Amino acid sequence: MFKTRFIISSIVFIIFLIITSTIKNKTRIIEKQIFNLNTTISSLEQNINETQLDFHYLTSPAEIEKKLNIIGFANYQPISHSKIFFDISDFLSIENKFSNLNNLNEKEIQKK
């Protein structure tokens, strides 16, 4: 009677010990992944903030006027409306057209 109780209690103890150690290891791995993701996110947020600051600085009218004074108004030519893309899909569609033409030309060259 005593032996069976001891064996059952020791088996239950060992099972719980194994389960807790595996859970602890899995949570430790998840915590490391969360920490790595948080550091990546913070560095990307800092990069976004710096990029936004650069964009606002470089596109300010005063900075554009300074650049025009440096390069001269004679060398300045505004961008035509055909080169301005209002959406990334417009740009990608034109890029795909160019790349298809290049691929066709390369295939014709390889055939010769």
Description:
This protein has 112 residues and is mostly helical. It has two domains: 2-77; 80-112. Helix content is 82%, strand content 0%. It contains three helices and no strands. The chain has helices at 2-58, 61-71, 88-111. The radius of gyration is 32 Å and the shape is elongated.
Mean pLDDT: 80
- Output the structural class: mainly alpha
Q: Quick one: biggest sheet?
A: none
Q: What is the H-and-E element order?
A: HHH
Number of domains: 2
What oligomerization state is this entry in? single chain
Poorly predicted runs are none
Strand segment count:
0
Radius of gyration: 32 Å
Q: How many alpha or pi helices?
A: 3
- Hey, roughly how much beta strand do the residues contain? under 5%
Shape: elongated
